[in-house]
Amino acid sequence: MSHRPSAGRVTSAKIVIAGGFGVGKTTLVGSVSEITPLTTEAIMTSAGVGVDDNRQVPGKMTTTVAMDFGRISIDRDLILYLFGTPGQTRFWFMWDELVRGAIGAVVMVDTRRLADCFAAIDFFEHRRLPYLIAINCFDGMQYHNAQDVRDALAISSDVPVVSCDARNRESTKNVLISLVEYVLTMRRTRAVAPA
Amino acid sequence: MPERDEPTGALVRPYAVTRGRTRPKLEIALEALVETTVRGRSGMMRGGQGGSEHQYIAEMCDGGRVQSLAEIAARMQLPLGVARVIVADMASDGLVAVYEPTSLDDETDAVGTELLERVLSGLRRL
């Protein structure tokens, strides 16, 4: 490391953890976080078109979107945050904020409900956010191999597909390491040969 | 029964705290780190002028315990937008310092690459 930031200059980074409802996002965050995962809420106010339960405040509705997150102190001056995406993919406004400045994303997949992750993959590809696929092996069982999943998701051959047990700290750690290695490799490749 | 002075997740009170403002004076990232300044600390000891939310945040982020905007919002049970308005006010009054995350946008930028390398070696040491 050539030049460390000057003393006292703390900084942070974040990784986004995406995937369908119940796929284990919060479990994964909790397995490596130094704090019990916290929940932060954002409120969206929008015109309540097509919503029938807005008689109290005509034309308006508010939606609360909750995100779970955890924290890892990388070193004294650098904190890494892991943010789980809101369960419902229709809350895109929050996803914009989540991906801004992120290192990359982990897309968690339950092979029994593969389609649940399609929206997240589309979103990250559109935003050019690097991501990898982490197949969460519930009860230690992997129902499909990585190549089957890759084929089914029709993702590019360079996107890493790894297996994990979201409850296991070492396993989660390895998923995050794989993601950062992938991001660094892509970055170095592009820095040498800009598109 | 929760204590009346405890911040709650209810909508009315948070926006009363910001006097109805929803736009912060400063855009602050979710993961931006907040640290209480010397001025913020002395304000805290004098009892502060910005109300209990300012006090709470100044105490939370004091003594080297930097916290992200997301943590402040979560721990105070305030919606993110409300916490952002309050922290931005405190920053503009010099009560807290806000450290924005290092940008990774420029792929040829050595600072971003170095940050990623630090994250990687930190994760390996975990």
From TrEMBL, chain A:
Gene3D superfamilies of this UniProt entry? P-loop containing nucleotide triphosphate hydrolases
UniProt name for this protein: ATP/GTP-binding protein
- Native species: Paractinoplanes hotanensis
Q: What InterPro entries does its record include?
A: Gliding_Motility_GTPase, Gpn, P-loop_NTPase
Q: Which CDD domains match?
A: Ras_like_GTPase
Per the record's keyword annotation, is Hydrolase included, yes or no?
A: yes
Question: What are the entry keywords?
Answer: GTP-binding, Hydrolase, Nucleotide-binding
The family note in this entry says: Belongs to the GPN-loop GTPase family.
Automatic annotation (TrEMBL), chain B:
Q: Which Pfam families match?
A: DUF742 (PF05331)
The record's listing under InterPro entries reads: DUF742
Top-rank taxon, per record: Bacteria
Q: What protein is this chain from?
A: DUF742 domain-containing protein
> What species is given as this protein's source?
Paractinoplanes aksuensis
